[in-house]
Amino acid sequence: MRLFLPILSFLIPVANGILLSNKQEPPACANIECAPLKCPTGFDEKQEPGTCCPVCFNPDIKLEAKLTGATGEFGGSESTFCKGTWCFPTLCPSEEKITAPTTTNGQCCPVCNV
User: Fold this and answer.
1) CA-to-CA separations, 109 to 5, 80, 103, in angstroms, rounded
2) Please, are residues 99 and 87 in contact by the beta-carbon 8 Å criterion?
3) 91, 97 in Cβ contact below 8 A?
4) What pLDDT score was predicted for residue 65?
5) What's the pLDDT score for residue 20?
6) What Å distances lie between residue 59 and 13, 42, 43, 62, CA to CA?
7) Is there a smaller number of Cβ atoms within 10 Å at the N or the C end of the chain?
8) What is the distance between the alpha carbons of residues 78 and 67, in angstroms, rounded to a whole number?
9) Residue 8: is it exposed, middle or buried by C-beta count within 10 angstroms (0-12/13-18/19+)?
10) Following DSSP, what letter does each residue of the chain receive, concatenated?
């Protein structure tokens, strides 16, 4: 009997945890109705975990993300005062309305005075 109570006191919480972990919450997609899907040639219907509706997927298409910061390729230039900062042309109505950055005003790039 002495051994029975410690074992029982251990098994009850374990069994309770197992029973509760099997209880499933209602799915987020329960009330979502997916439209019929017609995939173009080369694409297959694919249902990803965590999504509500299937999507058209082509495993032969590889998208490699090319992540780069500002390079000046499309305009702009590096800031003279702030390392790692790029300044792009301002669209001020006139040149007089531009305040240029200096060592004392704390600006990295020219700004328009409105």
Assistant:
1) 75, 8, 11
2) no
3) no
4) 74
5) 47
6) 46, 9, 8, 7
7) N
8) 19
9) exposed
10) -TTHHHHHHHHHHHHHHHHHHTPPPPPTTTT--PPP--PPTT-EEE--TT-SS-EEE-TT-----------STTS-EE-SSSTT-EE-----SSGGGEE---TTT--SS-EE--
The pLDDT of residue 2 is 60
- Token pair 């975990």 is found at 49
Provide the token pair at 74. Answer: 């499309």
Per-residue pLDDT 10s for the chain (114 aa) are: 565 445 545 545 545 555 444 434 447 888 889 999 999 999 999 998 888 999 999 999 988 877 666 777 777 888 989 988 889 888 888 777 899 999 899 999 999 987
